[in-house]
Amino acid sequence: EIVVTQSPASLSVSPGGSATLSCSASRGVGTNVAWYQQKHGQAPRLFIYGASTRATGVPARFSGSGSGTDFTLTINGLQSEDFAVYYCQQYWNWPPRGTFGPGTKVEIK
Amino acid sequence: EVQLVESGGDVVQPGGSVRLSCAASGFAFSSFEMDWVRQAPGKGLEWVAYIRSSGESTEYADFVKGRFTISRDNGKNLLFLQLDSLRAEDTAVYFCARAMIRGIVLDSWGQGTLVTVSS
User: Hey, are the CB atoms on A49 and B105 less than 8 Å from each other?
Assistant: First the structure.
């Protein structure tokens, strides 16, 4: 089973600032990584897949990068609606056991 | 518009059973792989089960251990999750979700239904 870790567990950012979220896989997963945003009390929403492709309707201030074992989600010019928990997901292995990371909470500073 | 609406969540005693449903609309349900993902209170996302578009193939998380069964009715655009032998640690919001890539990249989610296992 591939283990996905995320860092930091939480970070505080001022509105208008930038945030860099990291995701690591215990072994190489190519670019088979997705990112989801979840706001409190809501369902998750797909934001990035293929490590760097934005899903429909996702603003350009969100960008994903990486391949192999290390991945990054960068948010530039944070807006109030961006404060949420972000989950990293690898989809290299099948069945997809352990597919999600533990999440990074982005909070208002 | 894609819509997924879960129902069936309840308070259940340990060892009990519950059947969750997910009503799909706004897309060709029979063409898509589907999954169930759960989230315990205050915790992260945890994949539970997968079913192929035809319903002929299924996969489960290790913790399921034969206790849960995923199924679908393509004629009625419904997805199901039968949960048996429930334990306290199964308490969670259960989401149904549509897969767009490799059966597990999930591009549409329901709002979730809460299962509470408690005596």
Answer: yes
